[in-house]
Amino acid sequence: MNIHEYQAKELFRRFGVPTPRGRAASTVEEAVSAAEALDGPPWVVKAQIHAGGRGKAGGVRLCRSVEELRQAAGGLLGRRLVTRQTGAEGRLVRRLYVEEGVEIGRELYLSLLIDRACGRPAFVVSPAGGMEIEQVAAERPEAIGRYPVEEIDRIDGPSAAAVARFLAVEEGEMRPLLQGLLELFVRCDASLIELNPLVVRPDGRLVALDAKMAIDDNALFRQQELAGLRDPDEEDAREREAAAFGLNYVALDGDIGCMVNGAGLAMATMDVIQLKGARPANFLDVGGGVTVERAAAGFRLLFSDSQVRAVLVNIFGGIVRCDIIANGLVAARARQVRKDLPVLMRLVGTHEEEGRAIIRDAGIDVRWAQTLDEAAGLAVAAL
Ligand code: ADP
Ligand code: MG
């Protein structure tokens, strides 16, 4: 789960990570009173969307007067901001963050993430801040330093010194920042904290100018307060609906909708689709405890997705019974708008005959396949 910059910075403050003073605002008037409560001008008005690249897209505005601030806030609120991370449709700006303008000496990059190679959190740092780290990694890999933490809750002296040296920053500035971020990371079950840029002020002090933070979804059950920071407006509508029905669903950008039982089989199904030269529209594992209602919700999700041009059902019935899936299809079909959407069924295993009979008796036109290979081939042909 991603959170907004203003929310992440609030957490930064609690853990002693220096950030500029700022306030969130959802109207122009709120933005003006937010600015008046801060030092400045200059102020910086920042669009709060779950995407980076706002600066280059006009989503971060430096304002030297209340008049400029009014204009910037009015121009951003209610507008769709298109950045290199949003896709062409952009993201609607519903909220702004107004903060004090900071004098910038140097812009650095610093993030803390789970290093899967060593199974620990690691700091990833670079003196090339303010640009996309993937680009730095591709062009100048030597400009990126990776520092796995030695202990889970304490930053040790040598690591802090090494990071400070790599970034040419005072160790006395760097160590408390690293310590605060590490505590925040662990206590909040974060999977990523990214400061891009982390700024060195002309006097040598550090300040986090940008803040991105992701929380591990699997830890939200014990992170009640953080769970409340979820912003449904920023999530994929399809994923939101799937979550409401307890379906394991990930939206993708292909055109074959997939309905599968079991995560492994769902991944294999996506692989076979790609092997045949097409692309899956989603990952969907209906799970072992599926009911007719949940199966129906899964089908409705696929049927109502305008991106989907064919639906591939791959059920290998074990604990999941084929008749449950079949009844789910019948229930969803009754409300399906695009009746001509091709449905390819590989329905084998427990109660297979019953399942097929239910679909036939309901008069639903599906194409049957015996193997995954055959079903995927039919789906690609149907496109
Ligand atoms: P994004 O990564 O989405 O473009 P950032 O928060 O990184 O957004 O802002 C983009 C740039 O705007 C920063 O690299 C920095 O140069 C400038 N900036 C952001 N916040 C401030 C601030 N409070 N004071 C001065 N400059 C800022
Ligand atoms: Mg940034």
Describe this structure in words.
The protein is built from 13 helices and 19 strands. It has helices at residues 5-14, 28-36, 66-76, 133-139, 157-167, 171-187, 224-227, 237-244, 263-275, 292-303, 322-334, 352-361, 372-382; strands at residues 2-3, 22-25, 43-47, 60-63, 80-81, 91-92, 96-100, 106-115, 120-126, 145-148, 190-200, 206-208, 212-215, 248-251, 256-260, 282-285, 310-317, 343-349, 367-368. Helix 5 (157-167) packs across helix 6 and helix 10 (292-303) crosses helix 11. The mean pLDDT is 95. The chain is elongated. The protein is α+β, with helices and mostly antiparallel strands and 383 residues long. The strands form five sheets. Strands 1, 8, 9, 10, 11, 12 and 13 form a seven-stranded antiparallel β-sheet that branches. A four-stranded antiparallel β-sheet has the order 2-7-3-4, with helices on one face. Strands 15-17-18-19 form a four-stranded parallel β-sheet, with helices on both faces. The site of magnesium ion has 3 residues, from loops.
